[in-house]
Amino acid sequence: MVRIACVDGDGIGPELMDSAREVLRAAAELDGLEIVFGSEPGGAGTYLETGEPLAPGALERFRDEYDAVLKGPVGLPEVRKPDGTEAGVLGGVLRNGLDTYANVRPVRLLPGVPGTAERIDYVLVRENTEGLYLSRGSGVRNERAASDQLLMTRVGVERVVRFAFETARERAGAPADGVRRVTCVDKSNVLRSFAFFRDVFDEVAAEYPDVEADHRYTDAAAHDLVADPGRFDVLVTENFVGDMLSDLGAATVGGLGTCPAANIGAGTAYFEPAHGSAPAIAGQDRANPTSQVLSAVLLLEHLGHSATAKRITAAVESAYADGAIRLDGGSPERGTEAAAAAVVDRL
Ligand code: IPM
Ligand code: MN
């Protein structure tokens, strides 16, 4: 039995989550897998109603009563503090509250989708609990200046780098040349914190002689992820850099609508699209549910239900190959419900 806590989120979140639940239910039934869905409110809407982005005790319930969390996109543009930052950000509460230190963002070109290269299949591992984001809520700002502080700790860097090497060993995909590698993305030529990140990376890399240790400065990584993405296998980087590069990677494979993410911690994990809640198109049956469905696939893989995960992945790929889900400026030519039905048909 798999117990999944569902946080539907804001904007297009509920309709994406409906699609993901529909696909999960259908696939689980075919495989004789029992899935129980629970529901927890969360996001900017919840914050507006209650002053908190999650209900009391939700983090404990996620840890103790569920196997994993499936979350829709969250955030609303009007939910801002006077300093301009987002108020009640669920991501911060979940990532730090559950200590999900690895944000895993696979970037993979689906059949029939025009990408910037013929074959794109790599995993970006974004450090998820420190780096520049640790400054969230504690930066300073006045009329004339503002500052945020970036922090890297040995424990924080070591665990995420180790996670990246383990991912390179285990993952199914491989780069075009077949060499398993982890690329450390940093700005160690300019910033001490990133030089520290690279040194810790090199120390951990020595424990994985079977995986090639590779390095790129952040700017060169941005270039190569567009110009020569086929060489990448697993990348590991700091939180803020990872935030940018995962959107950049998404743009090379047809946009954010196909990009899932896993937030993995030692005790618990949650799964969500890599994109935002797109309130402008909410409730119009226009959002592409692929990112949410593939997030559910990551959840199943994480819990060891690889046969059901593969079944859904194959169905998504076949729906793309047949042109049943087509991207049209970031939204599918066919609607959300039709896209989910196309996947269910092909399970
Ligand atoms: C992401 C998002 C979040 C982030 C936002 C919504 C706070 O962009 O998950 O990439 O910056 O981490
Ligand atoms: Mn982002």
UniProtKB/TrEMBL annotation:
* Keyword hit for Lipid metabolism: no
Write down the required cofactor(s). Answer: Mn(2+); Mg(2+)
Q: Which Gene3D superfamilies match?
A: Isopropylmalate Dehydrogenase (3.40.718.10)
What does the UniProt keyword field contain?
Manganese, Metal-binding, NAD, Oxidoreductase
Which Pfam families does the record associate with it?
Iso_dh (PF00180)
- Every copy of the Isopropylmalate dehydrogenase-like domain together lies at 3-343
The reply on keyword Phosphoprotein is no
Family matches, as PANTHER family: D-MALATE DEHYDROGENASE [DECARBOXYLATING]
Put simply, this protein is called: Isocitrate/isopropylmalate dehydrogenase family protein
